[in-house]
User: Fold these one by one.
Assistant:
Number 1:
Amino acid sequence: MSISEERLNYEKVDQELDRIQDLTQEDRRKADELAYSLYRMAIRFGTWDPLEIDLTEDKKHFAEMDKQKRDYLIHFCTGFWNAEENVALQFCPWVMVAPSTYQQAFLSTQLVEEFKHTEFFEHYFKEVIGVERENKVQNIVHDSLDPRGKQLIQAIDAGPVEREAAMVEGLVHYQGVIEGVQAMVGYDVFEAVWGQYDLLPGLKEGFKNIKRDEGRHVGFGLRMLKQFAKKPEHAERIKKIYTEYLPAMLTRYDQQVIVNGEEVETPIEVQGKDRIQNMFDRRLKDVLGQTV
Ligand SMILES: [Fe+2]
Ligand SMILES: [Fe+2]
């Protein structure tokens, strides 16, 4: 296939992903059909290599950037690296609890992609940032992933009702909150602080690829939640878990930013709490047709 044909295909893939994530548009496919088509999309178009992205310009930009933005980048990328690594390590139960071959197949592509995203940030720190990640970045939404995973494993041997309930809760926590709100806000923050000023093209390229992968993860999660929300008991459950995590998501942007032992002022463009609140409202409206 020629390069221009391949590019055209990616354009189609991106349009399809936008459509899947836009819950105002109807999609009548059942869970297995949707999972199969996303699985095929991952096999065919999810093949980028984190080590192939050119980081030459990023090294120059990083060296020349003003101190506040450089230090904030260390904080910001530490947050992403930690999050990607943590979800990768914890994700197996989400694969196992899914009820069919192609739902598990799709979620397995997600598992390997989370490791790939982890590798991208590890590589970026080594090549561009040149220091260890910070150890003071908090993300308390992640603290309960471990018990959530254990709950999912227990539900595998329980009856179908309990298994489905656990899966719904797992989808809200992971695809709904972590990927659907926190990570999506992270991409917007990157664009606002660095991307719009044409800074860090390698990181921008990495985020473009990661966002495409995440489009499949979030698209699947949100479509599944919207289907589950037709049952009133699941709608209640979805609302409860989303709402439970809202304060923790907002706190993420309230924490003191410490880099190399010094406090860093948050760049004005970040606007993290407003972005979280807006994305949260949009997700709830999309999935449940209402805000809290
Ligand atoms: Fe990821
Ligand atoms: Fe993901």
Number 2:
Amino acid sequence: MCRLKSQDLDGRHERGHGDRKAVSFFQSTVPEPVLVLSNVVVAFGALRAVDGVSLSVARGERRAIIGPNGAGKTTLFNAVTGVLPPTSGAITFEGRTITRDPPHARAGLGIARTFQITNLFPTLSVEDNLILSLRGLKSRKFSLFGSPDLDEDERKRAERALSMSRLGDRRSILVKELSYGEQRQLEMALAIAAEPRLLLLDEPAAGLSPAERGLVADIIRALPRELTIVLIEHDMDLALGLAEYVTCLHEGRVLVEAAPDAIRKNEQVQEVYLGKPRHA
Ligand SMILES: Nc1ncnc2c1ncn2[C@@H]1O[C@H](COP(=O)(O)OP(=O)(O)O)[C@@H](O)[C@H]1O
Ligand SMILES: [Mg+2]
């Protein structure tokens, strides 16, 4: 697949209307970028956790972000979701600048990330957690007591999310009775139910057994092809098995960007990543 740096993509926009033929040819051969980061810096005092990252993710792409602990991966996600607005640089989603938009505005545009475990309600069922999450999206008042009152669209979304996250037969189980792996599946279900166009997964398989990791990989692999997925993953085999393209971060910077095979062989990646313990 043809790969572009963000400068090239900017260049495309600068062609303007006088060169329509070239633009339409270009658009038919290169997938439209969904997410573009240009020179993004996130500083905590003197520490630049993200130190000038530029990257571009195409529609429908499955991108892995790898790198040793402390490389800046989660901070980069926080910049994309709006939890930590960048100190400098720019972020666009589907061509629209979102650099300073608050998290709820970005969610409304179609960006979802996996929820932390603490966002699940342990004493409620799988299905009720989904309903709460769907209602939260619509900011309607929700009462668990009384009629669940799901409209047709919500019912379909809940069903689809349950089935995609392989929790269809666990719908009435209380979250506290789910295994840890199933709780991670439910986090994915909540993100899927939002029907995002960009899904950010921060170590969805962390702390899981090999069998559970395999299931999470199968779930991700089976997500709709048009959904753009950016996955942070420590488990190199899992990340390289799922991604079409890989960005390796080191000390807040892009060390290497390449296809999985080239990443596996890359000496710089091996030095900073494979040579060190994968979990701190
Ligand atoms: N809220 C914060 N305040 C201060 N330093 C932080 C904060 N979040 C992350 N860091 C620091 O930023 C660096 C990158 O962290 P992080 O993005 O969590 O790395 P990764 O996800 O790649 O392991 C680390 O040195 C970490 O200690
Ligand atoms: Mg992290």
